[in-house]
Amino acid sequence: MAAGSYFSITALVILIQLTINLNLCLAAAPIHPSGRNTRFIRTSCRATLYPNLCFTTFSRYTTRIRGSPRLLASTALSVAFNTTRSTTKAFINLSKHRGLKRSEAAALRDCVEQLGDSVDELKDSINAMSPPRRGDNFHRRTSDIQTWVSAALTNDDTCMGGLSRKAMKRDFKTVRRQVVKVAHMASIALAFVNRYAADTH
Q: What residues does the Pectinesterase inhibitor domain cover (predicted)?
């Protein structure tokens, strides 16, 4: 492969990552932290598998969350959804790049399909996360949310497996890191949903 093609793919991957991060920053709520709300976020994040990423991400949403486990869970679902959707759109563009090997383009297309399913599952979860109403089977609803987010996490892992094959070029490590972030966000969201479900039973 020509050096120019290699460079262009690398530059495109970096641009995609910057675009995803910019979109997530623009979607964030203004930071107006209170001590109590910040402590709630920090304590909640310690119960996740990725406490540092969790606190860095959600400390900017203290005003929105206001110490509420339900709002924490719904915010985490929204962040996971936005991260996954932005990554999916970026991968669609990357899969069309002419400098890719056939195996690389195929792996990206498979990944787009998996992440697209995750987007749908996270969207369903967000819609089901509305406050419970009288006569509503909320326990059934939380069980559905847990199932959907778990499925999204499985899809993310499947995508990552396809991108980790030896046939993928070294400059795809940036792409793989983005999928890892998508999976970590889904994992954090699932932890918060599980906590909320346990608190409401």
A: 36-192
Average pLDDT over residues 14-18: 56
Token pair listed for 187: 């994992």
Q: Name the nearest CA neighbour of 47 among 66, 73, 78.
A: 73
CB 138 within 8 A of CB 200: yes
Burial of 54: CB neighbours in 10 Å, binned 0-12, 13-18, 19+: buried
* The CA-based dihedral angle spanning residues 15, 20, 22, 26, taken in that order and rounded to the nearest 10 degrees: 160
Amino acid at 143: S
What residue ranges do the domains of the chain occupy? 3-24+69-200
Taking the C-alpha atoms of residue 176 and residue 107, their distance in angstroms, rounded to an integer, is 12
Tokens representing 66 are: 């206001």
Overall fold of domain 3-24+69-200: Butyryl-CoA Dehydrogenase, subunit A; domain 3 (1.20.140)
